[in-house]
Amino acid sequence: MKSIQLSSIKSLFCVAVLATALLTGCSDDDDKKPAKLSLSKAKVEVKEAATTEKISIVGGTSPYTVETSSKETATVKAEKNDFTVTGVKKGTATVTVKDKDGESVKLDVTVTEKEAEKK
Question: Which end of the chain is more exposed for a tag (fewer CB within 10 A), N or C?
């Protein structure tokens, strides 16, 4: 009778240890990933001669790098989770934002002619 009780106690102990190991090993905190990298806008239009547009970077993992495909058309200046696009000359450019993990997202930029000043 004692051997049956001892066997049952050992079995219960093993089940308890296994359950504890499984539950602590599957914690929700272990699987958290940053939100997908995205931007507050998919495309922007600015006028040439230094008009600007501020864009927010959402998700991903900082720090971020921000580059323009054409500095002659539009320039960019990064500031933490935002960047500013400045129109230089009429045309199109693509701004690429890349996060610390190598994820990237693109922004289409159109620079239009500055309106002639009225006299």
Answer: C
